[in-house]
Each structure stands twice: as structure tokens, then as C-alpha cells.
Amino acid sequence: SAPGRFADYFVICGLDTETGLEPDELSGENFEQTPLRRTFKSKVLARYPENVEWNPFDQDAVGMLCMPKGLAFKTQADCREPQFHSFIITREDGSRTFGFSLTFFEEVTSKQICSAMQTLYHMHNAEYDILHTPPTNDKESCSSTGDCNGTSVSKLQRFNSYDISRDTLYVSKCICLITPMSFMKACKKVLEQLHQAVTSPQPPPLPLESYIYNILYEVPLPPAGRSLKFSGVYGPIICQRPSTSELPLFDFPVKEVFELLGVENVIQLFTCALLEFQILLYSQ
Fold it and tell me: Could you tell me which residue ranges the UDENN domain spans (predicted)?
């Protein structure tokens, strides 16, 4: 039986430098996009522990849900703010496990990956050049307008491009907690503090492994109707579990629902739920 831990797994997903850049077909690969706008396959790079008998690790599901759009590449010119999201894995027997992911960008140190991205850009620009080369009899009109192949390609190369001698390449990476209950706020704080410790110029008070060990093996699930306070890297983290007589745990801000859908749509959805209509939410 499950021992009642706060978290079952700590997972790292990202770029596997051994397999290199593989197109992510599941995300709807579009080769007309510039290489920096394409998506590539991500992999589960590590997980701790390897496996727990009460919650078998589903590598395919976790890998896909941690990074649903695959790997993303950026340069120093792009915004690289960390992004947080959550997901649920529902098994055939109806049991659920919860995932909380923080995706951030780190510098690519592999020269092979940087060279591969540069090669993709050379190929992309060459294909663009061929597709947009005007017919021979249009050369005069091109020279008069100045808006033909040479100018177009130079614009393309300046916009959303990568030059290995000039740019720094960054790739997305994800750290994730797999938990038996949906303590969203606490998990978000844990992951944000771990990320802060990795990116901070000053080392954390203790090795990072000790914090991960603590969250996996020493922090219990709070009993029903009780609160739990435990130490993060830079400060305390608190979560509360409702009692059996209270509403079920819902640790997500309702404010975001109104911001995303608007008041009228929320009221319409609530009305449909009360009338037992079938509701389908479609999202990117």
C-alpha cells in the first residue's frame, strides 16, 4: 500500500544529446517553419526514485504531459521566462495521479546540437531560396522593385534566425513532481525554489539532492483536515488538506477561469453543468 508521501517522483525532461534533434511528429511538425519555431522530441532524462510499486511510472505519459509541445529552442533575443502547468494521469481503474511541471530554458552546451541547428538553418534558407527564386523574365522587375530573392532571404536570415558564431542557443527543460494529491501551490513553490537554486550565483544552504530526497521520502501527506508545513530551499512551504466533511481539495485559483473565459462564458458553463448538458472544452 502507498505510504502516504507528499510526492512519489521527481522527474527531469529535456534534450537528449545522444539522440540529437528529432522532429516531434505528434505536435504537428511544420517544416515550412524556421528551425527555431519547430518542435523536437523531448525525453525523460531522469527520475527519482526509479519506480514505486503503489504508483508505477508511466514514462510515455509523463514525458508527453511534461512537455506537450516538445522541445523548444530560443536565442538570447527571445523571452525565456519559466512556465508552470499541471496535468492529471487517469488510469483504467479510474485512479489518478497528479503532475506539476516547471519549464525553463538553459544554454545548449553541446557543440553538436548547435551545429545541427545551424545546418537546419542553412537547409531552410536554401529551400526558401529555391522556392522564391523568380522566373528569368522577371529579373528586371525584381531589380526595379528590390524586393526579390536576395532581399527576402536576407530578411528571413535576420528575422528569427540562428548564427552559431553570433547567437547563444537555449533549449527548454522541465522539472516535475508526480504526487498522489493535487497540492498545486505547494508543488509550484517547491519547483520554483529548486529552479532558483540552480540559476542563482550563490549555492543553496544544502546540496540540491538533499531537498529532493526530503520531498520524496521525508515529507508525508497531511492527514485529512490538517495542515502541513515543510522546508523548501529558500523558505517554508505550507499546504492544507480538507477534512472529509469539507469540499474536495481544489488548489487552483478560480480567478484564472474568469480571466481566460470571461464572466458570461463562466455563467453559461455553470448553467450547462447544473442542467447536466454535455460540455466540451477545446484548447491549444
Answer: 24-284
